[in-house]
C-alpha cells in the first residue's frame, strides 16, 4: 500500500461544505482510478461500507456491484434497509445473499467465542468468494477501511478487510475513506444523502448478534436477542436516548430460570440490557437509564419476546466488564 499516513495538512471534515469538497475530490479520484472497469464491494449496511457504496454509486454507477451477505446475525430490519436504500433508492447493482441457514448450521453447537468469531469470518469470506466468482471482469475491491483500522488503535477491529480471498481474487483495492475518522465518515455520509439511522448508528460488531447470543447460538435465542434489541432501540429513540448513549443493546445468556406466567410456572431465558458511554471503547461507564423507562422496556420485552421471562440491567463499567458479553 503506497501511503497509509493521513496527510498532515488534511483538514478535519466537520461541516457539510467540507464534506462536499471531500466528495468532489474523491469522485474525481475514483473515476480516474477506476476508468471503465468494474468494482466489487461487500456492503454490510454499516456506516463505513454504506458511505463507500454511496460514493462509488455517484462515481461509477453500475460499474459497482455490491454484495450484501445476510448471515442471520444482523439487527432487525437491517437487510431490508440495505435493499431499500441501495437498490430501490440509489439504483445500485446489489446482490443480496440469504446465507442465514448456512451460517447458523455452521455455528450449531459451537459455544467457544473465538471459534464462533472464526467461523463467522471464514464463512463470510467463502460466501463473498462464491459471489465474486460468478461475476466477470472485476478489477477492483472497494473497502470501507477507515483511519483507525489502519492505526489499529485500541480495540477497533480491522473488520473492513475482506482479507483471506484466494490468490486469483486479489483485486486492486479502492479505499476512499482510509484517512477519515469515524465522525468525518458520518459527516460525509450525511452529505451523500444517506438516512440518519444509517449514518448515526451505534457501533455494531462484525460478528453481529452472534456475540450477544452467549454460548452456542440457537435460533430461538437469536430471535430473542434480535427482538429485544429492536424494542430497546425503539424505546431509546422514543425517549431521546438514541443520540445520547454511545452503545446500547441486549444480550441473551445461555441459561434459563424459573418464572410464572398466567398462573403457570415457566422456565425461560433472561434478557440483559447493556447501555454504555465511552470515548474510545477502552473504558466505559454505564448510562443512568431512568428507572421508569427500564420498567417499561422490561414489560414490553417479557410480553412481546417469546421465551423470555426476565430482564436484567448490566451495571458494570469497563473495566471490569467488557462492553460486549461474548
Ligand atoms: P469490548 O467488548 O471489547 O468492545 O469492550 C469494544 C468495542 O468494540 C466492539 N466490538 C467489535 N467491533 N468487530 C467490530 O467491528 C468485532 O468483532 C467486535 N467485537 C467488539 C464492541 O461492540 C464495542 O463497541
| Overall average residue pLDDT | 95
Biggest beta sheet summary? 5 strands, parallel
Q: Kindly, what is the distance between the CA atoms of the first and last residues, rounded to a whole number of angstroms? A: 34 Å
Task: Estimate what percentage of residues fall within beta strands.
Answer: 15-25%
Category by helix and strand content: alpha/beta
Question: What is the string of helix and strand elements?
Answer: HEHEHEHHEHEHHHEEEEHE
- State the shape: globular
The count of helical stretches stands at: 10
Unique bound compounds: xanthosine-5'-monophosphate
Relative helix content: 25-40%
Total domains, how many? 2
Q: Would you report the number of β strands?
A: 10
The CATH topology assignment of the largest domain is Rossmann fold
Instruction: Return the CATH architecture of the largest domain.
Output: 3-Layer(aba) Sandwich
- The CATH class of the largest domain, by name, is Alpha Beta
Q: Whole-number radius of gyration?
A: 21 Å
Strand order of the largest sheet: 3-2-1-4-5
CATH superfamily of the largest domain: HUPs
Low-pLDDT parts are 154-158
Amino acid at each position: 500500500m503506497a501511503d497509509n499516513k493521513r496527510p498532515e495538512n488534511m483538514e478535519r471534515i466537520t461541516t457539510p461544505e467540507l464534506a462536499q469538497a471531500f466528495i468532489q475530490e474523491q469522485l474525481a479520484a475514483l473515476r480516474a482510478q477506476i476508468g471503465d472497469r468494474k468494482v466489487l464491494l461487500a456492503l454490510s449496511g454499516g456506516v463505513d461500507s454504506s458511505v463507500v457504496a454511496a460514493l462509488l454509486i455517484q462515481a461509477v454507477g453500475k460499474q459497482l456491484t455490491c454484495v450484501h451477505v445476510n448471515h442471520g446475525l444482523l439487527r432487525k430490519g437491517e437487510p431490508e434497509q440495505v435493499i431499500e436504500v441501495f437498490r430501490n433508492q440509489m439504483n445500485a447493482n446489489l446482490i443480496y445473499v440469504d446465507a442465514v441457514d448456512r451460517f447458523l448450521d455452521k455455528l450449531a453447537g459451537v459455544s467457544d467465542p473465538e471459534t464462533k468469531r472464526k467461523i463467522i469470518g471464514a464463512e463470510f469470506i467463502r460466501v463473498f468468494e462464491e459471489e465474486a466468482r460468478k461475476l466477470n471482469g472485476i478489477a477492483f475491491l472497494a473497502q470501507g477501511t477507515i483511519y483507525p483500522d489502519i492505526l489499529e488503535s485500541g480495540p477497533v477491529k480491522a473488520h473492513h478487510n475482506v482479507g483471506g480471498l484466494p490468490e486469483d481474487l486479489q483485486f486492486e483495492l479502492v479505499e476512499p475513506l482510509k484517512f477519515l475518522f469515524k465522525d468525518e465518515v458520518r459527516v460525509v455520509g450525511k452529505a451523500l444523502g444517506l438516512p440518519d439511522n444509517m449514518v448515526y448508528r451505534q457501533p455494531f460488531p462484525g460478528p453481529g448478534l452472534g456475540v450477544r447470543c452467549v454460548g452456542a447460538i440457537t435460533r430461538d435465542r437469536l430471535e430473542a436477542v434480535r427482538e429485544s434489541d429492536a424494542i430497546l432501540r425503539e424505546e431509546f429513540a422514543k425517549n431521546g436516548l438514541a443520540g445520547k448513549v454511545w452503545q446500547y443493546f441486549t444480550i441473551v445468556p445461555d441459561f434459563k430460570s424459573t418464572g410464572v406466567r398466567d398462573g403457570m410456572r415457566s422456565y425461560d431465558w433472561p434478557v440483559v440490557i447493556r447501555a454504555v458511554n465511552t470515548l474510545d471503547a477502552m473504558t466505559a461507564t454505564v448510562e443512568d437509564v431512568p428507572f421508569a423507562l427500564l420498567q417499561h422496556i422490561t414489560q414490553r420485552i417479557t410480553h412481546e419476546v417469546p421465551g423470555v421471562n426476565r430482564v436484567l440491567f448490566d451495571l458494570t463499567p469497563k473495566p471490569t466488564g467488557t462492553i460486549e458479553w461474548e
